[in-house]
């Protein structure tokens, strides 16, 4: 017989979801009201404004989609591509591959620009792709690749798209709230993210923003959007600026309370301070990992502070380490994906997971678990190196 489910209290330091603040969890428990209630409509407008702050945009079509980041991705592609279109798709990890899938399911052709996993998207290769395919309608790329912990030059890529009269689609699932993201300044046309990464909200919501140029393209479509649920012209009837809202779907009301609270916390901290916090604790983590003899697999010049790709030492069993961390320390870190399966761990420092106590817990737990597996490293060196970083800055 089924009984009430009580989850364990974990520390989430994988690629997402991240730890959720008690403030956000408390917001979930507030009384449910109708999705067309005037008070909820007021909240919707506040959420849109807070998302504009987070995305650094004035785009009017800036909303949370009532589904996870994958739905945000699909919304961008199905609204901006039609059968017969060409899209240049950059792949340097798992999620570029998912972009390719979306392009093809729209009946469009994907022109692939491929780079090694663990390296950024090549700006030169993208320029060459446009030279070979000047009729490409869209450039799609991942800003912060969750599978590898690599940041690509979003500003340069958006400029190439604009210079070639193409629209840019940017995956910002792992970047929003963790590193600089300037939608308007960079000229990005369609950007999607997720609630469960650096925003530290509950999973299941995808913030998106569309530029005026993208909105014009949507309004001038000759083919119906293949997804009724994700058709932005329909969704805007519900999330539009007028006080009167047309019913489209029942929004996840309580989840929107949570998103609102997480965005309030980001606004209270300030974007620049949030970015500095992620970098500060990332530096402490890296110093500790390297003191333990572990190697970072991404060059420092393009390394994400919020998602750290760490090489698994020779002779150490990947799954056994992650299982021991979970069972003995209630600590979750991520496995490698694609080219890095069994070769790397992904350690997240996202949002509420990005604090000193989590860094020290992770380093101490890894120290003990690796020692139990026979790793040859100096015990205690990791925590000492991280503390030296903290002490130097705090002094």
UniProtKB/TrEMBL annotation:
InterPro entries: Aminotrans_V_dom, PyrdxlP-dep_Trfase, PyrdxlP-dep_Trfase_major, PyrdxlP-dep_Trfase_small, SP_NH2Trfase/AEP_transaminase. Its cofactor is pyridoxal 5'-phosphate. GO terms for molecular function: alanine-glyoxylate transaminase activity; L-serine-glyoxylate transaminase activity; L-serine-pyruvate transaminase activity. Its EC number is 2.6.1.44, 2.6.1.45, 2.6.1.51. GO terms for biological process: glycine biosynthetic process, by transamination of glyoxylate. The modification N6-(pyridoxal phosphate)lysine is found at residue 197. Keywords: Aminotransferase, Pyridoxal phosphate, Pyruvate, Transferase. The keyword Metal-binding does not apply. Substrate binds at residue 346. Residues 32-336 form the Aminotransferase class V domain. Belongs to the class-V pyridoxal-phosphate-dependent aminotransferase family. This is Alanine-glyoxylate transaminase/serine-glyoxylate transaminase/serine-pyruvate transaminase.
């Amino acid at each position: 017989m089924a009984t009430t489910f009580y989850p364990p209290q974990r520390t989430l330091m994988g690629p997402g979801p991240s730890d959720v603040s008690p403030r956000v969890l408390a917001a979930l428990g507030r009384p449910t009201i109708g999705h067309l209630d005037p008070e909820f409509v007021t909240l919707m407008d506040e959420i849109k404004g807070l998302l504009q702050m987070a995305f650094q945009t004035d785009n009017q079509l800036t909303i949370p989609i009532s589904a996870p980041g994958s739905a945000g991705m699909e919304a961008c592609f199905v609204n901006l591509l039609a059968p017969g279109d060409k899209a240049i798709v950059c792949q340097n990890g798992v999620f570029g591959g998912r972009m390719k899938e979306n392009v093809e399911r729209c009946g469009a052709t994907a022109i692939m620009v491929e780079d090694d996993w663990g390296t950024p998207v090549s700006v030169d290769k993208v320029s060459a792709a446009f030279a070979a395919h000047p009729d490409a309608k869209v450039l799609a790329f991942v800003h912060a690749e969750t599978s590898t912990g690599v940041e690509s030059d979003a500003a340069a890529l958006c400029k190439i798209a604009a210079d070639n009269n193409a629209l840019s689609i940017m995956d910002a699932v792992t970047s929003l709230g963790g590193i600089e993201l300037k939608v308007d300044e960079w000229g990005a046309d369609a950007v999607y993210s997720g609630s469960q990464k650096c925003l530290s909200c509950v999973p299941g919501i995808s913030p998106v923003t569309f530029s005026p140029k993208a909105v014009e393209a949507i309004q001038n479509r000759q083919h119906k959007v293949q997804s009724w649920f994700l058709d932005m012209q329909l969704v805007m009837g519900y999330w539009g600026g007028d006080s009167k809202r047309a019913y489209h779907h029942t929004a996840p009301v309580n989840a929107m309370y949570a998103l609102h609270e997480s965005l309030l916390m980001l606004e209270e901290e300030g974007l620049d301070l949030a970015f500095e916090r992620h970098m500060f604790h990332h530096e402490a983590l890296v110093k500790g990992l390297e003191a333990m003899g572990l190697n970072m697999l991404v060059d420092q010049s393009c390394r994400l502070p919020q998602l750290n790709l760490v090489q698994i030492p020779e002779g150490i069993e990947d799954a056994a380490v992650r299982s021991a961390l979970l069972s003995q320390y209630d600590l979750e870190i991520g496995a490698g994906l694609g080219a890095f399966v069994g070769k790397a761990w992904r350690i997240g420092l996202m949002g509420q997971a990005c604090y000193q106590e989590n860094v020290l817990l992770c380093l101490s737990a890894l120290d003990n678990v690796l020692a139990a597996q026979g790793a040859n490293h100096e015990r205690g060196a990791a925590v000492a190196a991280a503390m030296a970083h903290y002490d130097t800055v705090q002094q």
